[in-house]
Amino acid sequence: MNASAQDPGFDRAARLRQLVAALAPLLPPHALLHQAEQTTPYECDGLTAYRQRPLAVALPETEAQVAAVLKACHALGVPVVARGAGTGLSGGAMPHEAGLTLALARFNKIIAIDPEARTARVQCGVRNLAISEAAAPHGLYYAPDPSSQIACTIGGNIAENSGGVHCLKYGLTLHNVLRVRGFTVEGEAVEFGAEALDAAGLDLLALVVGSEGMLAVVTEVTVKLVPKPQLARCLMASFDDVRKAGDAVAALIAAGIIPAGLEMMDKPMTAAVEDFVHAGYDLTAEAILLCESDGTPEEVAEEIARMDAVLRGSGATDVQASADEAQRLRFWSGRKNAFPASGRISPDYMCMDSTIPRKHLATILLDIQQMEKKYGLRCANVFHAGDGNLHPLILFDANDPDQLHRCELFGAEILERSVALGGTVTGEHGVGVEKLNSMCVQFSPEEREQMLKLKAAFDPAGTLNPGKQIPTLHRCAEYGRMHVKRGLLAFPELERF
Amino acid sequence: MNASAQDPGFDRAARLRQLVAALAPLLPPHALLHQAEQTTPYECDGLTAYRQRPLAVALPETEAQVAAVLKACHALGVPVVARGAGTGLSGGAMPHEAGLTLALARFNKIIAIDPEARTARVQCGVRNLAISEAAAPHGLYYAPDPSSQIACTIGGNIAENSGGVHCLKYGLTLHNVLRVRGFTVEGEAVEFGAEALDAAGLDLLALVVGSEGMLAVVTEVTVKLVPKPQLARCLMASFDDVRKAGDAVAALIAAGIIPAGLEMMDKPMTAAVEDFVHAGYDLTAEAILLCESDGTPEEVAEEIARMDAVLRGSGATDVQASADEAQRLRFWSGRKNAFPASGRISPDYMCMDSTIPRKHLATILLDIQQMEKKYGLRCANVFHAGDGNLHPLILFDANDPDQLHRCELFGAEILERSVALGGTVTGEHGVGVEKLNSMCVQFSPEEREQMLKLKAAFDPAGTLNPGKQIPTLHRCAEYGRMHVKRGLLAFPELERF
User: Fold this and answer.
1) Which of these, A298, A301, A279, lies nearest to A290 by C-alpha position?
2) Which residue has the higher pLDDT, B48 or A291?
3) Does ipTM top 0.85?
4) pLDDT at A4
5) What residues of A are in contact with residue B387 (Cβ under 8 Å)?
6) Residues 104-123, chain B: which have Cβ within 8 Å of A?
7) Judged by CB atoms within 8 Å, which residues 159-198 of B form the interface with A?
8) Please, which residues bridge with residue A380 across strands?
9) How far apart are CA A449 and CA A467, in angstroms?
10) CA-to-CA dists, residue B410 to B340, B406, B432, angstroms
């Protein structure tokens, strides 16, 4: 077992000396940081509520250095936490107090774009948007587009299996990655996946995508590129009832339409963003749907007409189509700025990320309205409606311990209700440290045990990003909430099939 | 470790008595077979060259029986091999001589079709085509369509991650399955995946799909359904040069077109199938491409026009578009009957299943022509060109040991060349027992070791479908061929990026 700070015999200074002595010969001097003022910038990722300074930070520049650092840490039993741009929202890259943060920002080269095969081979530290920028001269782009795409790295996207507004039509990271190259905790080079249709044997690529840096350290990625659509147009629909908007989403999908984006904002969120971006949103609507079509002009014209008919048939009180690209971007401006806009109306907010079957969207929105009363806190809703991926923003003041406590209970209830509706506790932000307890609710002890065994198959000593994603059986016992997955039985009205 | 027939002390009769004594109280009498005349029908799957009678066959009818049988076999250390319809082409369901075949044919109920969510929940023994038939009244169907879809089961499709002619556009089984329910080797119930966008934690669903029954026994599956397109039309293009046909495939994809099907047949195959189906194929062409578009009439008209332009621009000597549904089905009739047609021109054939990056299609076709001379055997080619998934059919006479030997060498060389071109040894048929040696070529010892560890994380004693898919390190050492994955260096002209 690795030395842990929980261990009463843990001597931080001695451990640091030992680690620096082992790593200094392996890295250039500027690539090893261990003074407090150097390591403090690495103390959290985008989930700023959880902070921890690492013992040291390594910034390797070559794969040989990554392998050597991993081997050295493995020999010493020192935990290793890989880190991309630090934009994650669940604390997946939060440092370990007795561990090394392996910062991969310098792996920022685009190795090759192959327009014929429609692939890009890039290092792990390349920014998501930089791939699309490099592919643009060939009329191609990389489809998954998390809100943080200007900053987040492809390595981080793989760790969290990131999504974005386009993933309803184009898939999650998993569906857009062909191959990864990286290193095991022992520092052995491995490649998972293939540039061909499918790799033989067990699908280790799929397992590594979304594993939050707990199975291997990825250094190089081959992604699929897709053709930039000739045209995109967006419909903005107003609804006087949240239930009608939720049902419109289900009706669109049931009609065989797969929008390039399908997003919903409720009234509190619309008010917050309109004040911020002045996009001309309908402030009287209980919910607004943004529904995008992309493709050739013929395809878009035909699809927009069908979307419009379904939205009006579902009770939309108003439907506007973007007349040009400027208007389309204005329609999206509020959605894209929902998080900063929320920061202006409340001192703090907690963003949830649960996902439910689309048909239950209206149900959970009405449930959340009830929870607002129960916990005495407001909640603004913006989400990837087409995917059923909710992002409720619970508004609170972290300086008020009672509000913080109520906010946590509110969030946990949203997650439990999502699981009971047949959903999951995280759609695209990952589990990290934030949703460890919720994993106890979603998975049975046998299922969690299976995940722990898989983790051990890659990392028997448990030194790769320890304490993330998979709660220990002990932790779940302490949390004391029941596994509710099969709790569907408690909601017989939902047992539609 | 499980008792093995290789063990000199293995007493088959005693082992059988012990197994029957343990299972008889758990199953109705008609659901437990152990006489030779009862178990012989189970001695092989679609790969008839490998045969082995199991110790016994259980045909459970309920999940409780599956769990009880697994628990009993686990306690006795008896290997268990799950079986669907037995249509697999790589011997994945070949019995173990000291083991139980768990035949799941009676799990044949369609539990529910949910047209709104566009999902079907079915038992594992439901036939692939039966799902589409049940969904048809709602205008929906299940997209992956292996050639055996009239007979093969969804459980078997999951074990092999099956594809089909539509998987270029609609994805493999992995991309069309939302959730599975099943049992571990110890008989514990587990569920992997979710009806929502993405499940939290490690992606055990993706790992189980394609794991050839080595990690768990799946009893229930929730799949995605897609809307039946309003219209489908097919182009048939002739080429006077295999290289031009291969390059046309790459050009279509590079043009941003994703055909609903994109299949190629070479001249020997065209001659064989024309003689069989009389579809009016161009017998003078060196290669024929079938290229399908589906969608709304507007989408199809626009896409067919673009496909036609790319095919002609790539040097097609003739391009015909299907004028009606009858003609479209006639175009496809030869492709769909390629395997039986081959059976008429040769006493035996061996079907390969390797997959390569599309851009190398022409290269490997020319290589295969060279190999025909080298081994003195003919090879007819039919394949999922859009996926780069080859199905070369090596024609031989199994009664001639020298031909059989040359055929095996020919097949191994195709697989090694595919791996060297950046491909894989199997696209959709699985590894089973047939391609165990080729796995040594595709994967490094570290990568195979990682797969073995994952297997052990689910099944420490190794009693779930032992001896399939993942070769032991010892076996690869005996096979004596090198891992060639990074052998790309030996083909610097291929290092396009």
Assistant:
1) A279
2) A291
3) no
4) 52
5) 196-197
6) 111-119, 121
7) 161, 163, 167, 171-172, 174-175, 184, 188-192, 194-198
8) A393
9) 14
10) 21, 6, 19
**Digit-coded pLDDT (tens) for A57-112:** 999 999 999 999 999 999 999 999 999 999 998 899 999 999 999 999 999 999 99
In chain B, the N- to C-terminal Cα span, in Å, equals 46
Q: How confident is the model at residue B8 (pLDDT cuts 50, 70, 90)?
A: low
Cβ within 8 Å, pair B200-A435: yes
Q: B196 and A227 in contact by Cβ < 8 A?
A: no
* Alpha helix stretches (DSSP H) within B212-360: 242-254, 267-277, 297-313, 325-336, 338-345
φ, ψ dihedrals at A74, nearest 5°? -60, -40
Residue B185 to residue B133: CA distance in whole angstroms: 33
For residues B206 and A32, give the distance between their C-alpha atoms in angstroms, rounded to a whole number: 37
Interface test mutation site (partner A, options B197, B247, B424, B429, max chain A beta carbons within 10 A): B197
pLDDT-derived band at B379, boundaries 50, 70, 90 = very high
Residue range A333-338: average pLDDT? Answer: 83
Cβ contact A198–B161 (<8 Å): yes
* Residues of chain B contacting A209 with CB distance shorter than 8 Å: 203
| First CA to last CA distance, chain A | 46
Comparing A111 with B491, the larger pLDDT belongs to: A111
pLDDT for position A165 = 82
Mean pLDDT of chain B: 89
Ordered domains of chain B (ranges, CATH)? 12-103 (3.30.43.10), 113-227 (3.30.465.10), 231-340 (3.30.70.2190), 346-494 (3.30.70.2740)
pLDDT digits (tens, 9 = 90+) for A460-486: 999 999 999 999 888 888 887 666 544
CB A121 within 8 A of CB A112: yes
A496/B112 touch (CB, cutoff 8 Å), yes or no: yes
Chain A residue with the nearest C-alpha to that of B389: A197
Closest partner CB to B112 (pick from A163, A206, A497):
A497
